[in-house]
Amino acid sequence: xxxxxxxxxxxxxxxxxxxxxxxxxxxxxxxxxxxxxxxxxxxxxxxxxxxxxxxxxxxxxxxxxxxxxxxxxxxxxxxxxxxxxxxxxxxxxxxxxxxxxxxxxxxxxxxxxxxxxxxxxxxxxxxxxxxxxxxxxxxxxxxxxxxxxxxxxxxxxxxxxxxxxxxxxxxxxxxxxxxxxxxxxxxxxxxxxxxxxxxxxxxxxxxxxxxxxxxxxxxxxxxxxxxxxxxxxxxxxxxxxxxxxxxxxxxxxxxxxxxxxxxxxxxxxxxxxxxxxxxxxxxxxxxxxxxxxxxxxxxxxxxxxxxxxxxxxxxxxxxxxxxxxxxxxxxxxxxxxxxxxxxxxxxxxxxxxxxxxxxxxxxxxxxxxxxxxxxxxxxxxxxxxxxxxxxxxxxxxxxxxxxxxxxxxxxxxxxxxxxxxxxxxxxxxxxxxxxxxxxxxxxxxxxxxxxxxxxxxxxxxxxxxxxxxxxxxxxxxxxxxxxxxxxxxxxxxxxxxxxxxxxxxxxxxxxxxxxxxxxxxxxxxxxxxxxxxxxxxxxxxxxxxxxxxxxxxxxxxxxxxxxxxxxxxxxxxxxxxxxxxxxxxxxxxxxxxxxxxxxxxxxxxxxxxxxxxxxxxxxxxxxxxxxxxxxxxxxxxxxxxxxxxxxxxxxxxxxxxxxxxxxxxxxxxxxxxxxxxxxxxxxxxxxxxxxxxxxxxxxxxxxxxxxxxxxxxxxxxxxxxxxxxxxxxxxxxxxxxxxxxxxxxxxxxxxxxxxxxxxxxxxxxxxxxxxxxxxxxxxxxxxxxxxxxxxxxxxxxxxxxxxxxxxxxxxxxxxxxxxxxxxxxxxxxxxxxxxxxxxxxxxxxxxxxxxxxxxxxxxxxxxxxxxxxxxxxxxxxxxxxxxxxxxxxxxxxxxxxxxxxxxxxxxxxxxxxxxxxxxxxxxxxxxxxxxxxxxxxxxxxxxxxxxxxxxxxxxxxxxxxxxxxxxxxxxxxxxxxxxxxxxxxxxxxxxxxxxxxxxxxxxxxxxxxxxxxxxxxxxxxxxxxxxxxxxxxxxxxxxxxxxxxxxxxxxxxxxxxxxxxxxxxxxxxxxxxxxxxxxxxxxxxxxxxxxxxxxxxxxxxxxxxxxxxxxxxx
Length: 1114
Known about the structure:
Subcellular location: Membrane
Structural class: alpha+beta
Domain P-type ATPase C-terminal: 907-1103
Family: Belongs to the cation transport ATPase (P-type) (TC 3.A.3) family. Type IV subfamily.
Domain P-type ATPase N-terminal: 85-151
Oligomer: single chain
């Protein structure tokens, strides 16, 4: 009985990649009726479990991103716990709960809220509150040391600069929002499609989309122009992936025409959440209860491709769409240097309090001694004789006068806390980021991408990294897979490959007078190619036929026909989320099994020139628990076959017990040899399904797919029951080549004292092979391998390894290459992480130069980073390219995303992004070193220059009866750190280089200065403060003694002190500059000149205090 005439529809081949999804669930399709010739296939999606509340050692799924402990699929969606969407009835949908409109707002401020909200956010910095209190105190008559305007000026300048920057950024967001909200879409209104602005779309409305349209909100597909209900979408705006994905409309709604047929239905779906890979809902339509999954929903921001039109109903709009719920960005991080700087500012505050206490106590003592002379002393009078009638000063008694003196001292010495430091740090980081972005040594020509600085506040952390945690696939390797070898029926086909089949340019087929070729050429084994062309009559040829049929059919690849410059020639581009699947399908095409067409219900494969159609009767996609995928094919010879491919660890468990043991052993041997040279391996199995077994699967699948509780677990159980008693067809080996410069980069990092750990999902042999080829592992390294299946076994392995490592440390053999490599698998980590064994693993890892973790889940990657981050005082960096690396990237102190083949999820979650792993060397060893050294020096210099000025004011107080009379004009005091000395500091912190790029790359050991915190530590801080003491004494007393017997007044001397301090701190800066440029010269010497000009201008303005005091110095 043939299956060709059966009406096959969507079996939900949801395109999920093993490399990019951490917890996908099995799902597939089955017939609605139990007859052999069915009229439709029931599809269902899966619900993706998030990851946040699962123990990091767990292999299973966890709670979703909202922190729920149970997925929506594990409980019934009732009316109180669900969103009810009435199809084509927006009024009824929104009458009970007014759902969010489709207008979006990414801007933070409005015209009215900008000022209060921006000020509120800025005053989260404690230093700003400090200076605000100082300004308020100065407004009180008893404490008015400076003019009221002058006291507010420094804080006002800093707040204004930040506010202008924030306002400009928010204006750009407002402009983007306005453009987005005013885009147009076609909405069904009164049985006619009309153009409507995106911001006016409501939940429940029906939307029609055309090819290349962007989806305005999250919609459930109702129909498409494809007769099978398939729609191709591109999610590059959502997750950065350019490969096409498939979504499907339900068969029951597919034939309806919205303008003619009244479409009524009720969708009961989960409440809005951030899980872009999961969707769980049911739909009541024409009396039928339909199940909806991720393959039925298209998210806002996706683009409709290769599909003429599609119709859907809005279920989430505006701020409730999954794209908007995920737009919060990566968590904020603060640099370690800034954290340490805040501690020093607390010490400066204590020092400031000490100075003020000394002044106030001395003032109290002085007032007590001169209690009887206060009426007649010319410099401290209780009576004011400037008026005709003498008036009493508000003398409040000794205790209050001491308090007032203390507060006035705080006002006078306020710049001890450098308010300009924060804005200076932001400007310096912007300048550093500019030079990192423009560095041609970090420009990737292949992807035409430059370095990206996504987090400006941790630039200096790049110079203090001690641990690098790296993904393997796509990070150390190119993630451009190339089919290399095959093992079929125990025969190893790993001979020398040839690029072309004879004189032809690879395999090609004729379609309507045109030549179709695979877009990518694959080297082929000549012997295997000849056998694949002999048909499937002989046993060996039959196995080869089944092997390449499995490669061409068991996947979710979509063939796209691409035009070329030659009208008679077309290229077939295989689109898919998994580079592994793409490589396998290209390999099948090279050997004459060319996938030509895929719909929701069938595939067409050209096999050695003969076009054959296979009905896709069901599919269970890859998930991280089963570690395999399967497809049920209705073949042209009326047989039904189940094809399974997956990791060897999962496949060999489901092989038929009666299968030829010699073939099995040979296949295992070939797999081991492939893995040992760094190749990625997959095992392919197959068996025929009888009619009774198929009908049983169909019934079980239908029951599981329509379940409202525990659907995921039921579907997984159906898949496991199907995938058994297989015959091994063969195994494939794919090469994922190392990126250029990876071995040299790792060697340089290790010389710099950085420990490199590799965390991969690949099998152990593959990871070890890559470790050797990348120079992560060396031949003289001892290896500790932990592969345990129980907690006790893990405990014993760790204890034995610790004893060995301690003996090695005691012996200190210089020729042993360090107690080298710890190799541990994900199963062992399940028992170690989140248990008392973590401490032992940490101690062991500390003794090892290299740690290699194999078969690890994404959550385990984050757990390993947390293991070091929470126990060591060293800086950590994580680098990866896929969605499975996001948790690791966000856990580390510094996260770097590789913009590679697995989309941009890692980039979007990272602090920095770049194109190649080898760029880590210039980033850390060059820019990281410079950034750390410059920022450390700038912070210490800011403390120095402000402390010198404050101490000069302090010494003057000792000569004025502790009255807080200041010789320096109030405007010079407030402009000192904001204008007089700020520009040179910023310029030098951006441009100066203590060591050249060539030296830093030649001698990676120089990077250790940041790891050891040699440029900024407590010792340097106190030396800086000590330096300010003697320099302030010199700069104060030399002018004082020079003019001691002259009639120059204090204010004129104050101008001299101002100029002397500015000259001193700038010369001090100039002495520390290592690499001079014309900008450095202009800023330093120009600052001195500018200060002289400013002092003269201030003194010649009659309304300001100190009028013409500078003339006295002449």
